[in-house]
Each structure stands twice: as structure tokens, then as C-alpha cells.
Design brief:
About 40% of the residues lie in helices and about 25% in strands. The strands form 2 sheets. It has a 6-stranded mixed sheet with strand order 6-7-8-3-9-10, with helices on both faces. Strands 2-1-4-5 form a 4-stranded antiparallel sheet, covered by helices on one side. Helix 3 packs parallel to helix 7. The longest helix has 16 residues. The mean pLDDT is about 90. Bound molecules: adenosine-5'-triphosphate. The site of adenosine-5'-triphosphate has 11 residues, from strand 2 and helix 1.
């Protein structure tokens, strides 16, 4: 279980996260829905150790606090982040980017198998394994970013707007790969603006507004929830 409890975060005087509680069980897929600026990226960054929450916040993995763990040690604990904007190394090849992801100790023993798994998930990457990443399409770069995160052998994979700026057909391809990732038992914490596709692969979801959680339900219920319809799905 990855548990976030009473998480608050300030940027100067601005309270970006206000007493957030979110949990994900091993193997579960959870989506955080919210408008721009709601604080979704900040939540993922806090879990990844990239920003420092307020004192009373709790972030725990399998019951052990990971709050205060430096960002480069978070993958070692079993949590990987695919950041918004992907964070891939453009001047390195696909293969080199993947290899960099295998740095945590927990990943080294299974590096060869994981390379094979990622090429199975994304056959396009196998074809282009020696290609420089900056010469690839946005969708392919997103596959590299997800592949690199998976190389760390995570228990939980956090994805910040993976569909952003991609053509619908590429988004469909990415999400069908994410379904296969789910089948390997990895828990997914997803931040998305593409509400319908993200609910289609999620077990549960949370609604975020101005730094607070304002709703939580099963994905099935959220698909027909009036507030979700109104805010995100063009309903009235
Ligand atoms: P988006 O989808 O636009 O990224 P979001 O829901 O992910 O939105 P955050 O990026 O987490 O939201 O931002 C939450 C709030 O905190 C916003 O008001 C934003 O302007 C502010 N904020 C984010 N990063 C910083 C920062 N480094 N310094 C100051 N304020 C910040």
C-alpha cells in the first residue's frame, strides 16, 4: 500500500496541497482528476521527494515512512515517476535511456528480463532501440519515459499526464500498454486530463480542486458522476 495522509505543501505563502489523503493498494490503478493548477503534479512530486511537504504530512510505503527520502533514492524504495514533459535524455539512444533506468539495486538482477518486457510492451522501441530519442515522435518519447521508469522494477508507477499533446491513436496505444503493465501487478497512480480513457483503466479515482480532495469513488461511479460530467466530460 502506498499511503498519503494529511499531506500539505506550500510554495512560499501559497498552499498548493491542503490536507490531502490518497491511497493505492498494490496492483491497483488510481487516477487523480482535476483542472490545471489543482495541485496534481505537486502531489506526485511530493511522493517522488522532489518537493518538501509540511511537517505533519505522511507518505508511507508498505507502512514505512518515505517522507524526506531524497529523490534519487525513491526508485530504490519501489516508486517510479514519469514526469510531465517526460524527462528523457534526447541525446542518448532508446537502449541507453532504458539502461539508465535500471540503476536502483532492486532492478539490477532483472535488467535483461525487463528490457525484454519493455520491448514486448512497446514493439516500436525494439525496432528503434539504437535511435537517438530527440529524433522520435512525442508518443515514442513517452514510451521511452514509461519504459525507463519500468526498468527500475517499481511496485508503484506514477504518471503525470502521459497523454498530453499526443494524437488520439497514440494515446490508445499507450493506454493499452498501461493495461499490460497493470497485469504485471504494478500499482499505477495516474494524473490525467483525458478523463474518459483514464477512468477506463482505473479502479478508483479522486477529484482535486484548488489543492484539496473534493471527491473519491470507484471509476465506474465516476464515469456517470454529475460533477465529473460537468467539469470534464462536457456534460451539463
Ligand atoms: P497542471 O495540470 O497545470 O500542471 P496541476 O494540477 O498539476 O496543474 P500543480 O502544477 O501541482 O497543479 O500546481 C498547483 C499550484 O501550485 C498552482 O497554483 C501552481 O501555480 C503552483 N505551483 C506549482 N509549482 C510551483 C512552484 N515551483 N512555485 C510556486 N508555485 C508553484
Amino acid at each position: 500500500m502506498l499511503e498519503i495522509r494529511n499531506l500539505s505543501l506550500r510554495y512560499g505563502r501559497h498552499l498548493a496541497l491542503d490536507d490531502i489523503s490518497v491511497s493505492i493498494a498494490q496492483g491497483e490503478t488510481v487516477v487523480i482528476l482535476g483542472a490545471n493548477g489543482a495541485g496534481k503534479s505537486s502531489l506526485l512530486k511530493a511522493v517522488a521527494g522532489l518537493v518538501k511537504p509540511e511537517g505533519k504530512s505522511v507518505i508511507a510505503l508498505e507502512g514505512n515512512s518515505i517522507l524526506g527520502t531524497p529523490p534519487h533514492r525513491i526508485p530504490e524504495a519501489g516508486i517510479a515517476l514519469v514526469p510531465e514533459g517526460r524527462g528523457v535524455f534526447g541525446d542518448l539512444t532508446v537502449e541507453e535511456n532504458l539502461t539508465l533506468g535500471a540503476n536502483p539495486k532492486r532492478a539490477r538482477a532483472t535488467e535483461v528480463e525487463r528490457h525484454a518486457l519493455i520491448f514486448e510492451l512497446f514493439p516500436r522501441l525494439a525496432e528503434r532501440r539504437n535511435q537517438m530519442v530527440r529524433t522520435m515522435s512525442g508518443g515514442e518519447q513517452q514510451m521511452v519515459a514509461i519504459g525507463r521508469a519500468l526498468m527500475s522494477n517499481p511496485k508503484y508507477l506514477m504518471l503525470d499526464e502521459p497523454s498530453l499533446g499526443l494524437a488520439p491513436i497514440v494515446v490508445t496505444e499507450l493506454f493499452s500498454a498501461l493495461r499490460k503493465v497493470q497485469q504485471t501487478g504494478v500499482g499505477l497512480l495516474l494524473v490525467e486530463q483525458n478523463v474518459s480513457i483514464s477512468l477506463s483503466i482505473s479502479d478508483r479515482g479522486y477529484l482535486m480542486e484548488a489543492g484539496r480532495i473534493v471527491g473519491e469513488n470507484t471509476a465506474e461511479a465516476l464515469k456517470t458522476d454529475a460533477a465529473v460530467q460537468k467539469a470534464f466530460l462536457g456534460g451539463t
